[in-house]
């Protein structure tokens, strides 16, 4: 049966209304089963006819209405019509249908257990009162209201106390939450990578935390987009925390228990990564109001420097150089046109070509490349990486006198760096020791102190990095350069006979970008180590060599971030990108520069 089919057959019958107020198994006084039994016993005792033949899906069964909605919540806004009536919204759907049937006189009355089952707010109380004034028989099992002014007062008082009880509970919950926030506990669900064990215990998730940390590390490189990281995370098996889906309107109407719906761990997507990366929860912070404070409930998953590196990367344009779901091609995202756009691979008649959709106005006359042409260009460069015997002899002959100058320059620079390090440490210590004074005097606010401390820590990290670079002696650096040259002597030969995936690995170890125009290699960007060996010019002019020496010694910053890495790490890690001009300098003139930008230590 549907609502529209109800006629006058139930105009002398009663409906039973039960409303659940809690899911707590220890508080069963107002459970649906308890209310149903009490109301049926009352109807039999008072000989009230029930509409047992009335069953409407999503509303009632055999004349019994079971609803699982709060009776305390109410709409704040009121609508005043031009006719002078005031309207408000009733949030309980079954209760709304019930009063509609009562108003239309399609049923005679309704039975509630007590007043708080019918209403816990002033607006619904007025509706129940109006129905009684209209002649509808509204019965309560636990209370009897006389048909006089005392009975009306009694009914209003019960309604007021029902609303007051919910208001007191609401205040207690808010005060408890405020107290927990003041203790820096986490009263909300922890993000992916943590488990929920209470407001004061959010331990790391042993399955998800390592993957989440790796996501931060990958994004900090600047080579991944959020969408591609989402695909990568799914391939690693990362899922969201298990949770239950929301009940449908039909399930709510049929009182389907939430506990009966299984928890499902859904796979992550790019939106999950987008929410994850800027969340300070991963550095041990919790949100209290609009601010983030240190938490006592969980430990940091990543360090602050990594987190703020990720925040800086988020502010920049993010273009992924890694693609999870694209077919493998040897030189995808490596070959570029002079206009900056990449060559995309395609296959025609079994041959792999690369094509670039150039920007408007680009002067590249031929926008197609054969894969073999790219291979030949790379091999030509790799064949020139190592030193010739004449170059090594000349470097060794001039090394003794020139290395002394380099060592003196390094010592002076290292002293300057240590002085700079001491100054920064003193500034950080001042902020830490005088934080309260700065806040009280109004010199800086909390956000300003945090930003300044973060700026100094980043500055200190760069200085420490430079100090590490200068730690090695010049003779050791020269030895590394010469040894590295010997190791890459046969790089061109290995590249010629390598498999496609090996060619890509070699190409990305040596270069970050190859720029083509009219099917010819016009420039490239070399990686650390390879750059030092490629930037030398076969020119025997002594004066030109000395001039090059002076320019390099004055303009090129000595040191390399890769110096602290082992040679084995060089084969797997990508060093910092450096510009390769493609020019070759005389070995004697480039000696100081080679030592300054030596490849990673063996």
Automatic annotation (TrEMBL):
Could you tell me which InterPro entries the record lists for this protein? DNA_bind_recomb_sf, DNA_bind_recombinase_dom, Resolv_N, Resolvase-like_N_sf, SSR_resolvase
Chain intervals for the UniProt region annotation (Disordered)? 543-565
Matching SMART domains, A to Z? Resolvase
Q: Name one GO molecular function term.
A: DNA binding
Boundaries of each Recombinase domain copy?
A: 191-320
User: Compositional bias (Polar residues) spans?
Assistant: 550-565
Reading the lineage from the top rank, the first entry is Bacteria
Question: What keywords appear on the UniProt entry?
Answer: DNA recombination, DNA-binding
Identification of the protein by name: Recombinase domain-containing protein
């Amino acid at each position: 049966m549907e609502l529209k089919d109800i006629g006058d057959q139930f105009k002398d019958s009663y409906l039973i209304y039960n409303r659940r107020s809690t899911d707590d198994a220890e508080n069963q006084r107002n459970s649906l089963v308890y209310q149903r039994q009490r109301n049926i016993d009352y109807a039999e005792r008072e000989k009230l006819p029930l509409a047992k033949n009335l069953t409407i899906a999503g509303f009632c069964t055999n004349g019994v209405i079971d609803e699982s909605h709060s009776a305390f919540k109410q709409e704040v806004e009121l609508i005043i019509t031009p006719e002078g009536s005031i309207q408000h919204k009733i949030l309980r759907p079954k209760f709304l249908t019930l009063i509609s049937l009562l108003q239309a006189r399609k049923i005679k009355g309704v039975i509630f257990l007590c007043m708080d089952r019918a209403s816990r707010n002033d607006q619904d109380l007025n509706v129940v009162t109006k129905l009684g004034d209209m002649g509808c028989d509204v019965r309560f099992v636990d209370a009897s209201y006389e048909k006089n002014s005392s009975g009306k007062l009694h009914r209003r008082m019960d309604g007021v106390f029902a609303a007051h009880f919910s208001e007191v509970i609401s205040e207690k919950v808010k005060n408890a939450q405020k107290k927990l926030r003041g203790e820096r506990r986490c009263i909300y669900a922890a993000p992916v990578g943590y488990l929920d064990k209470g407001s004061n215990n959010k331990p790391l998730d042993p399955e998800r935390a390592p993957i989440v940390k790796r996501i931060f590390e990958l994004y900090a490189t600047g080579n991944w987009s959020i969408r591609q990281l989402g695909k990568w995370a799914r391939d690693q098996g990362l899922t969201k925390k298990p949770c239950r889906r929301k009940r449908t309107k039909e399930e709510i109407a049929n009182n389907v228990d939430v506990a009966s719906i299984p928890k499902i761990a859904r796979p992550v997507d790019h939106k999950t990564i987008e929410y994850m990366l800027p969340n300070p929860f991963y550095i041990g912070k919790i949100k209290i109001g609009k601010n983030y404070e240190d938490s006592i409930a969980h430990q940091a998953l990543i360090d602050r420097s990594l987190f703020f590196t990720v925040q800086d990367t988020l502010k920049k344009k993010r273009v992924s150089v890694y693609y999870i779901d694209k077919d493998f091609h040897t030189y995808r995202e490596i070959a570029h046109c002079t206009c900056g756009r990449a060559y995309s691979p395609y296959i025609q008649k079994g041959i792999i070509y690369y094509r670039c959709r150039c920007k408007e106005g680009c002067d590249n006359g031929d926008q197609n490349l054969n894969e073999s042409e790219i291979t030949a260009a790379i091999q030509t460069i790799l064949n020139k990486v190592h030193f010739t015997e004449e170059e090594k002899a000349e470097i060794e002959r001039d090394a003794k006198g020139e290395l002394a100058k380099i060592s003196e320059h390094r010592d002076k620079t290292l002293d300057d760096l240590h002085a700079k390090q001491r100054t920064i440490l003193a500034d950080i210590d001042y902020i830490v020791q005088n934080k309260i004074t700065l806040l009280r005097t109004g010199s800086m606010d909390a956000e300003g102190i945090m930003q300044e401390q973060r700026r100094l820590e980043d500055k200190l990290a760069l200085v420490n990095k430079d100090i590490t670079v200068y730690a090695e002696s010049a003779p050791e650096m020269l030895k590394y350069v010469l040894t590295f040259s010997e190791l890459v002597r046969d790089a061109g030969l290995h590249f010629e006979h390598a498999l496609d995936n090996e060619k890509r690995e070699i190409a990305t170890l040596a270069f970050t970008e190859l720029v083509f125009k009219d099917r010819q290699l016009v420039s490239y960007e070399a990686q650390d180590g390879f750059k030092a060996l490629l930037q030398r010019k076969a020119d025997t002019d002594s004066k030109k060599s000395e001039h090059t020496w002076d320019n390099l010694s004055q303009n090129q910053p000595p040191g390399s971030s890769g110096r602290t890495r082992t040679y084995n790490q060089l084969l797997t890690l990508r060093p910092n990108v450096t510009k390769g001009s493609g020019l070759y300098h005389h070995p004697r003139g480039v000696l100081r520069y080679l030592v300054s930008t030596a490849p990673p230590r063996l």
